[in-house]
Write a structure and sequence with these properties.
With 377 residues, the chain is of the alpha+beta class. It is built from 13 helices and eleven strands. The strands form two sheets. The chain has a six-stranded antiparallel beta sheet with strand order 1-2-11-10-7-8. α5 packs antiparallel against α6.
Length: 377
């Protein structure tokens, strides 16, 4: 039988968890011994209330109840040693200790129930991430690829950041993007873009692919806006629901040409690492984010950049460059890349992941996704 069914919280299996159980029992023993030895007009029994109270903060209800029972027995021993268990003072102390132990056990039950619920949600989110955000293979034609997804919160394994890859007849298509907002709406938009990309990326030219992705996001926005407007009389809320959009980069990297073709839809520019230099691939005529082209009605411009053997391309979402240190300074991605001395995509992302968490103090303000691509000889 596992620890959930026995009533113990899995925290007891973490490092140092079991050692915490020594504290309430040691407190009970210390208070009992001292209370028996001190003069009769000194009463330390009320301190026993702390034992079940502190146990409820890290253990399950059964362990809390056990500690409370041991504390009641200890208080009874003190009463017998000093006067009598029916002594009014000790009787009230025992009654109070029983009541506090019951209350502490109840709150330990509530905390354990909530932790189990969070654990189940994390498991569901992790499974959804595997389905929606499929792993990218580490090789695609002449390309070596690495990817990583960094959740801002430990409980939330997936947000609106997305990436995908598809092989065409003569090259590789890559997508990275970031859906506006958080929660289910952002995940829904990300899922829609990923699904549309996987269906059409192998057959369409880049401008047509972008228009297809745009049409999908735009139709989803209209449906969401209509549903929310029908469900509420608040016109402001209904209008706000129509502001969903997805920033994205879509790339086409041919197998037999040392170039890449890029469409930037309002996303941070990719960075090209070449011979110790970091080169932002800024587009002269970027497209608006997916979902907003219906308002701006732009043309889709495909721009070409050199991408030769030994070059490494880094794609990322704004959760990387918007990470802040304790002084609220943004993460200097370009400077960090200039100092990097590795030579392959996995080591690059490993370095960035560790460096980003260290810079932000272990807590990112937003989800972040990264793709690193190297052209091999």
């Amino acid at each position: 039988m596992d620890d959930h069914r026995r009533g113990f919280v899995p925290r007891l299996h973490r490092r140092g968890g079991r050692l915490l159980l020594v504290v309430p029992f040691a407190l009970i023993a210390a208070v009992t011994v001292v209370d028996v030895l001190v003069p009769p007009d000194v009463h330390l029994g009320p301190f026993l209330i702390a034992a079940p109270a502190m146990t409820a903060s890290f253990a399950g209800p059964r362990m809390t109840a056990l500690v409370g029972a041991v504390a009641v027995v200890a208080q009874s021993v003190v009463a017998l040693a000093r006067t009598s268990i029916t002594d009014l003072n000790h009787t009230y102390q025992i009654i109070a200790l029983v009541l506090i132990s019951i209350i502490a056990t109840f709150f330990a039950h509530l905390r354990e129930r909530d932790e189990n619920r969070v654990r189940r949600l994390r498991s569901i989110a992790h499974a959804a991430q595997k389905v929606v955000l499929r792993p990218i293979p580490d090789r695609a034609g002449p390309l070596r690829i690495a990817s990583v997804y960094l959740a801002a919160e430990e409980e939330a394994q997936m947000g609106g950041d997305l990436y995908a890859m598809a092989r065409t007849a003569d090259g590789t298509r890559l997508l990275i993007g970031d859906a506006r907002g958080k929660g289910l709406d952002a995940i829904s938009e990300a899922s829609l873009v990923l699904g549309a990309f996987r269906v059409t990326a192998r057959e369409r030219e880049l401008p047509e692919l972008i228009r297809h992705l745009e049409a999908g996001v735009g139709s989803s926005t209209e449906e969401t806006e209509g549903a929310r407007a029908a469900a509420t009389d608040d016109a402001e809320e209904a209008d706000d629901s129509g502001e969903a959009f997805v920033t994205a980069l879509v790339l086409d990297i041919p197998d037999d040409e040392p170039v890449l073709r890029l469409v930037n839809c309002g996303h941070p520019p990719p960075l090209l690492l070449r011979a110790g230099s970091v080169i932002p691939l800024e587009t002269a005529d970027p497209s608006p984010p997916l979902g907003l082209a219906g308002v701006l009605a732009p043309d889709v411009t495909v721009e070409t950049f050199p991408f030769d053997v030994g070059d490494v391309l880094l794609l990322y979402t704004d959760g990387v460059i918007e990470a802040r240190d304790p002084t609220r300074a943004f993460y200097p991605l370009t400077d960090r890349l200039t100092a990097w001395a590795g030579d392959d995509p996995p080591s690059l992302l490993g370095h960035l992941r560790a460096d980003l968490h260290a810079y932000a103090g272990g807590h990112l303000g937003d989800d972040a996704a990264l793709l690193a691509v190297e052209r091999l000889g």
